[in-house]
Amino acid sequence: MFDVITNWLASMGSLGVALLMFLENVFPPIPSELVMPFAGYLAATGELSFAAVVLLGTIGSVAGATLWYWVGLWANETRLRRFIDAYGKWLTLSNQDLDRALDWFRRHGAAAVFFGRMVPGMRTLISVPAGLTRMPITPFLLYTALGSFLWTTFLALAGYLLRGQFDRVATWMNPVTNALLLLLLAAYLWRVLRGLKRG
């Protein structure tokens, strides 16, 4: 996974940052924790502009979050619960999970959107309850953009400051990310099998 991301960024440049950050929000297995630091490293070597990396990373992240917001807006809670009843076991998602997400969002509102953009595993999910509860689009975009900007800046800055150490990091990051993806796949299969047994 690390090699795929780094090769993509090296060949596509700043536009690749935006596209990967969009995909990271749509397909969470693509981690922003790899995308943005490497983009920051490329900025440190002079191959990319740091400002462009942060700006396009933020734009890609906001675009992906907005897609899920519209899914929540379109689906409405009844339709989403029907979908979970039919396909939830394949997504390892239950109506109880939805209840918890909605309850957390209703208690924290705008703060959930802002801070959710900086929490791994929450970045994608927080947009759906925002849409389901009909949060107005303007504050949603504002808090999403602010949270995404802080997150992408922090990660890009980490890669920028890492500079000379990046080659050393790359040698162990690829096997670590591959192992992590295998663990995620195993956990997913276990949850699916457990859901099928219950059903």
UniProtKB/TrEMBL annotation:
Its main location: membrane. GO terms for cellular component: plasma membrane. Coiled coil: none annotated. The chain crosses the membrane at residues 7-28, 48-71, 140-160, 172-193. It is found in: Cell membrane. It is a multi-pass membrane protein. It holds the Pfam family VTT_dom. Residues 30-160 form the VTT domain. InterPro entries: DedA_domain, VTT_dom. Keywords: Cell membrane, Membrane, Transmembrane, Transmembrane helix. It comes from the Bacteria. The keyword RNA-binding does not apply. This is VTT domain-containing protein. It comes from Puniceibacterium antarcticum. The lineage of its organism: Bacteria, Pseudomonadati, Pseudomonadota, Alphaproteobacteria, Rhodobacterales.
